[in-house]
């Protein structure tokens, strides 16, 4: 999560993602590699609650208890199953039916819940009520945590109360980088999105014109830049365990970007070995994202995850909490596949370590003023999605909605395949890469494969040309120590139509 105060201009990064349990070790999945992604053994120490409370304690204004009430009501009274959630329930039927906790929420009278049905999680409502009353200590040292640990250990997991009590979030200065005339503010490693987006933007800037990112040739250049970026980013890891300073500096440098750009040919693509890959790619998955701007232009960009859809496939009956399977984002020496390169030692499992992530929550600034917020869900495809939406709006000049709904492409370096969107949204809109662009890519040697909804991106932009009310603008507060007025332009919020989302505001 990235939080920026409009008054001070200061941006903070809250890293409260899951960490490896104290009992974790490299060989814990030997003989049963599936347990790294499925079941209670795949669970990392949960951190989101600690991070949210920390952000609230620094920047919040409403009472803590009041913030929990809408979630308590949703869990207690129920929420309607959306078409996209119904599809996920259907797809994961075997997983849901195999777990008593998930079954209690998503199965009624022996039948899977369908779109329009109501799902309820009374155990989670009780958990959230305890958190509302007692704060994070309800989980990290109280009755909620004790109940969770019992359920996790009964399901075969390693999590202990010592893991919960010793959990620590980190708050650092946000990572700041230049990107095609804008300043992007985001998460430092072990999140790789900010440095990844900046590296791609700097490569494209070397072509000397915004039009270099336009059209089918722009798509080709983007794909090539993505492949180089994914090859480099596997040097990153948790900076508390791995020295990533030199790698981050290199990925942010214009000289390194120019070196990469010279290796990009406008008429050809190459196999993975051309891009100097060092290690295999992660297989990170599902997330959710939100963007918030308030009336004072304070901004929050937050990505959260339980990793896979329905996490590790276990819901704690006593607490209603879905267990994440964040351990699957780590590399292990046993991750061997003849079609992949060796696993990354910088991302090997160690107690209290955070795995490398593709999360890309960013805040975009222009001349010190808020220009926009972007973030996405979609696992390894997040960096590609956020980069394309950034380019579409801030570089190519698309309107905010067009920038989000424009067809996207994705590449992971391994496998060496361009995934291109070909989907119909829940609202009936078709989104697909044009036949001309597909032909252009194929002529250059790209292997193409269609994909449905791979990412969902959220965007809020501020029009920096004219204040909403120029008379009021004269009375706005100044930035602390800078004497810089906080600009108040028209805000436009866009929620991705790919899953039928819509902006919310007061």
Automatic annotation (TrEMBL):
<feature type="region of interest" description="Disordered">
    <location>
        <begin position="327"/>
        <end position="353"/>
    </location>
</feature>
<feature type="binding site">
    <location>
        <begin position="357"/>
        <end position="358"/>
    </location>
    <ligand>
        <name>L-glutamate</name>
    </ligand>
</feature>
<feature type="binding site">
    <location>
        <begin position="305"/>
        <end position="307"/>
    </location>
    <ligand>
        <name>L-glutamate</name>
    </ligand>
</feature>
<dbReference type="InterPro" id="IPR029055">
    <property type="entry name" value="Ntn_hydrolases_N"/>
</dbReference>
<dbReference type="Pfam" id="PF01019">
    <property type="entry name" value="G_glu_transpept"/>
</dbReference>
<dbReference type="GO" id="GO:0005886">
    <property type="term" value="C:plasma membrane"/>
</dbReference>
<dbReference type="InterPro" id="IPR043138">
    <property type="entry name" value="GGT_lsub"/>
</dbReference>
<feature type="binding site">
    <location>
        <position position="17"/>
    </location>
    <ligand>
        <name>L-glutamate</name>
    </ligand>
</feature>
<dbReference type="GO" id="GO:0036374">
    <property type="term" value="F:glutathione hydrolase activity"/>
</dbReference>
<feature type="binding site">
    <location>
        <position position="329"/>
    </location>
    <ligand>
        <name>L-glutamate</name>
    </ligand>
</feature>
<dbReference type="InterPro" id="IPR000101">
    <property type="entry name" value="GGT_peptidase"/>
</dbReference>
<dbReference type="InterPro" id="IPR043137">
    <property type="entry name" value="GGT_ssub_C"/>
</dbReference>
<dbReference type="GO" id="GO:0006751">
    <property type="term" value="P:glutathione catabolic process"/>
</dbReference>
<protein>
    <submittedName>
        <fullName>Uncharacterized protein</fullName>
    </submittedName>
</protein>
<feature type="active site" description="Nucleophile">
    <location>
        <position position="287"/>
    </location>
</feature>
<feature type="binding site">
    <location>
        <position position="379"/>
    </location>
    <ligand>
        <name>L-glutamate</name>
    </ligand>
</feature>
């Amino acid at each position: 999560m990235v939080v920026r105060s409009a008054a001070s201009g200061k941006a903070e990064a809250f890293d409260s993602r899951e960490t490896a349990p104290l009992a974790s070790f490299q060989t814990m999945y030997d003989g049963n590699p599936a347990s790294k992604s499925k079941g209670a053994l795949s669970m990392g120490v949960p951190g989101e609650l600690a991070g949210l409370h920390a952000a609230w304690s620094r920047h919040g204004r409403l009472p803590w208890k009041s913030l929990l009430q809408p979630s308590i009501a949703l869990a207690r009274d129920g929420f309607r199953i959306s078409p996209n959630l119904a599809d996920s329930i259907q797809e994961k039927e075997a997983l849901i039916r195999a777990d008593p906790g998930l079954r209690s929420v998503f199965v009624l009278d022996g039948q899977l819940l369908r779109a329009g049905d109501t799902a309820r999680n009374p155990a989670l409502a009780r958990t959230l009520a305890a958190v509302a009353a007692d704060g994070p200590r309800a989980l990290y040292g109280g009755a909620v945590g004790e109940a969770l640990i019992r359920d996790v250990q009964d399901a075969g997991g390693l999590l202990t109360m010592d893991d919960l009590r010793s959990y620590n979030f980190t708050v650092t200065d946000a990572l700041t980088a230049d990107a095609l005339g804008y300043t992007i503010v985001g998460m430092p490693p072990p999140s790789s999105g900010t440095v990844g987006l900046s590296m791609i933007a700097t490569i494209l800037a070397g072509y000397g014109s915004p039009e270099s990112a336009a059209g089918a040739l722009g798509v080709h250049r983007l794909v090539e830049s993505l492949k180089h970026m994914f090859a480099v980013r596997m040097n990153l890891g948790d900076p508390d365990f791995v020295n990533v300073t030199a790698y981050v500096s290199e990925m942010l440098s214009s000289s390194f970007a120019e070196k990469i750009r010279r290796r990009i040919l406008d008429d050809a693509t190459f196999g993975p070995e051309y891009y100097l890959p060092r290690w295999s790619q992660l297989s990170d998955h599902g997330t959710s994202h939100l963007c918030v701007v308030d009336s004072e232009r304070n901004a929050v960009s937050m990505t959260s995850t339980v990793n896979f859809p329905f996490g590790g496939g276990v819901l704690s009956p006593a607490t209603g909490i879905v267990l994440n399977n964040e351990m699957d984002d780590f590399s292990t020496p046993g991750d061997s596949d003849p079609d992949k390169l060796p696993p990354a030692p910088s991302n090997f499992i160690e107690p209290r370590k955070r795995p490398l992530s593709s999360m890309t929550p960013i805040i975009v600034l222009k001349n010190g003023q808020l220009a926009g917020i972007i973030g996405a869900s979609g696992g390894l495809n997040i960096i590609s999605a956020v980069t394309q939406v950034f380019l579409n709006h801030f570089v190519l000049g698309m309107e905010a909605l067009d920038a989000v709904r424009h067809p996207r492409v994705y590449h992971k370096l391994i496998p060496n395949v361009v995934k291109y969107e070909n989907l119909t949204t829940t609202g009936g809109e078709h989104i697909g890469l044009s036949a001309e662009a597909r032909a252009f890519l194929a002529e250059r040697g790209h292997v193409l494969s269609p994909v449905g909804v791979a990412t969902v991106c959220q965007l809020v932009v501020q029009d920096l040309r004219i204040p909403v009310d120029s008379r009021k603008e004269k009375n706005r507060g100044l930035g602390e120590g800078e004497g810089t007025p906080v600009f108040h332009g028209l805000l436009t919020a866009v929620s991705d139509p790919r899953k039928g989302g819509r902006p919310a505001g007061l």
